[in-house]
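Recall that a protein's primary structure is simply its ordered list of amino acids. Everything else, from secondary elements to tertiary packing, is in principle encoded there. The following example makes that idea concrete.
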Amino acid sequence: MKKLKQIIAQVKDFASGPSAELNDLLWQLICYQPKMPLRLHQEQLMNEAEKFSITVNDEYFTHKHLLINGFKWGTGKHTVLITHGWGSKAADFTEMITALKDNPLLTIIAFDAPANGSSDGELANLLLFVAAVKQVVHKFGPPNVAIGHSFGAMANVVALQQVAIAPKLLISLTPFILLQENFIASMNAAGVLPAAQDMFLDSFEKTYGVPASYYNLNRLYQFDAALNHWLAYDEHDTTLPYAYLQEFLTHNPSIKTKNYDNAGHAAIVKNPELIADIIMQIDAVIK
């Protein structure tokens, strides 16, 4: 978190218009992943896990293969894949994993995405998250249940569609909807002038071959109405505006939803009511 604060401070020091130096800083502002140390109860859960590793090719930042650390609990025949969000880690699901691993029918698999938690890298993007999900699926096979939070929910949708897998149950918790709008919000918060924002968005399009607006869950989501998709949200989420989610749900009325009012964007994964509901949702599809 200290480095992220330094990046924000450096960005705010640029009072002038766009420049190559500022643009380099904006890439760090947008793509840097702050890493928070494990708390004692998280460390205890991680110590109980069976460890595994995969690699993903980072062609965007380091141009190297990154070692991605994963964790597995249980030996049940029904696999639950958990994908965390931006600037997060598998251990942030400690309360949920602790509850799920009481079910002997489940095998729970989680991982630290590229540049997050204990995995390699400092900068990440959606494509690296997607690559990690796909590598985990390749290692363990199609999950019966896939749970994703925030950025991880978007990554799950993209990755599972790319490998043509429709799980028995897809669970999305406060999912990312519009990537470009999130970029703009981050730059606005750091006081970046519109011309410099435009320069960054132009450089994004040159780098990836598509504009940031391409990464829009309204366009990316191609699952049909037959998918059992359950979505949890907080109507007062201050990180991802509810209006974005409303539009997505209007386009996809088959998705079942529940509002956890004032649960918080990040803290929702620890919410006892949510965890109880997830257990109920999973029990309904594995029996």
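Residues 1-32+179-214 form one domain. The beta strands are 50-58, 64-73, 78-83, 106-111, 145-149, 169-173, 229-233, 256-259.
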